[in-house]
Amino acid sequence: MRSGGLIPGLLAALAIGGCDDALTAPTSARSDLAFAIAVAGGPADAFDRADRLLVRIVSDGVVVLDTVVTFESGGDDVRLRVRLPAESRNDRGDVQVEVRLGDQPLFRGEAAGVALSGEDGPVSITLQPVVAGIVPPATATTINTIGGTARVTVAAIMATGDTVPGVSITWTTLDPGIVTVASDGTVRAIAEGSGRIQASFGGVTAIVTVRVQATVASVVVEPDDVVLPVGATQSFSVSVRDPGGTEIERVPILTSSNTSIVSIVADGTATAHAVGTATIRATVEGVIGEAQVIVVQATPAAATGVAASANMVSITLNWTDNAGNETRYEVRRGPAGGTRAVVQTLPQDAITYSEDLTPDLVLDYSIAACNAAGCTDSDVVPARTVPLAPSRLMVDDGGGYGGIVTLTWLDNSTAETSFEVEISDYDGTLPWSLWEELPPSTATTVNHVTLIDEGYFFFRIRACNEAGCSVPSNEERAFNVGAEPETAGAARLQRRKSGATSP
């Protein structure tokens, strides 16, 4: 009698009478309410193990019958009779049926608005299996990629332990920071850790734990190729990624292939010890990332105290040698404020250099300490060679009256820092002496000097800087009316030699 996808299990009748005891014999009374109970799906074995039937009738919100009948089911139809109180036979009500094993419900069904007089004929009630529990997967679920997914399935079971097929489970996550879950049980990993999801159906729940533990797919060391001088340090970073390319937190083990060349500590700081090549390795769960380190000789320490001194057209440089690993020194020279070029290479430990140059140069010098790793330049120091001499000196004494003498000359130099006006007597019996020191100029210069002594005087001009003074310009004579030339000239020059100020 198991046909049509249903499992006919019980045929029962409700007999209207004056008592409510259950009868086990069938009846043909017209006042009986007959109803057929069939199971829609579910395990047949579970139904065959049922031993009790609960019948409940509710009319107008009042329970008019609530009874449990025992029976034995062996796969054949079982006929039962339940007596309905006589006062209920003209009412309509809802009939609820529950098939049980002991006190555990196995199947439930109901029919609404049934004529309790039985006038509507037999009533069919289809039973649905009752889910008593949800069983998690037998094996743990693990996702090895952040953002990866896994499908979780559970089993809905009856009180007999039989599985109920086709149950629509409701899924929720209890740890949304670690996993999310879709309506079909697909779990997505958000972060590493243990995430709980809950499966629910009809008030029955089960917790499933999903372990998110990303596997290491790649280890990258940065920078991956570096050149270091001996004694230098370099910080390396390590990024670890899972199969999906998401960076994950792991602590790498850092090692060097040759610690005598390069060593490295746990925080990623590497130190170069000797010239050579070494490989830095970061190992995470058996996956290795590498970086190559080439150690070269360190550049030398810079020379300090570089000083330039000039003597006419010779310039001498002196400095302090601070390097212990230089192989040479480079003398670099260029125009003031311009680009310097190497003009001489000196051996290691050199501390001085001299060269002869043409007059009237304004230069910049530096000293570079060098080896195979490169050069370290010093500070830049300026230097000058002796200026070019002025020319075309002309003297205007105003006819010898008034003591005003005007000197005019052509400035030929760009390197002077001053001009010196020299004076002597008319016949050169006294040496040339400084008459006046004037500021530098780059154009034709006119200067006025005042004579109060009488006589003939000779003038000449020299351009000067720290390297010295140029050769004198041409000599020109001036005359001042007054005392005899010999007396006047001698007295004036004597005052200049003694340090008296110019009148």
Which terms would index this structure?
503 residues, mainly beta, Immunoglobulin-like, 5 domains, 9-stranded mixed sheet, 2 helices, 44 strands, 54% strand, rod-shaped, disordered N terminus, disordered C terminus
Notes on the protein architecture:
This protein is mainly beta. The protein has 5 domains: 6-129, Immunoglobulin-like; 133-212, Immunoglobulin-like (Sandwich), CATH 2.60.40.1080; 219-296, Immunoglobulin-like; 304-384, Immunoglobulins (Immunoglobulin-like); 391-497, Immunoglobulin-like (Sandwich), CATH 2.60.40. 4% of the residues lie in helices and 54% in strands. It is built from 2 helices and 44 strands. It has a 9-stranded mixed β-sheet. Strands 31, 32, 34, 35 and 36 form a 5-stranded antiparallel β-sheet that branches. It is rod-shaped. The N and C termini lie far apart (150 Å). Mean pLDDT is 83; it is low at 1-9, 14-31 and 483-503.
Concise structural overview:
This protein has 503 residues and is mainly β. It folds into 5 domains: 6-129, Immunoglobulin-like, CATH 2.60.40; 133-212, Immunoglobulin-like; 219-296, Immunoglobulin-like (Sandwich); 304-384, Sandwich (Immunoglobulin-like); 391-497, Sandwich (Immunoglobulin-like).
Q: What's the tally of helices? A: 2
Distance between the termini: 150 Å
- Rg result: 58 Å
**Helix/strand-derived class?**
mainly beta
* Unreliable segments of 5+ consecutive residues: 1-9, 14-31, 483-503
In CATH, the topology of the largest domain is named Immunoglobulin-like
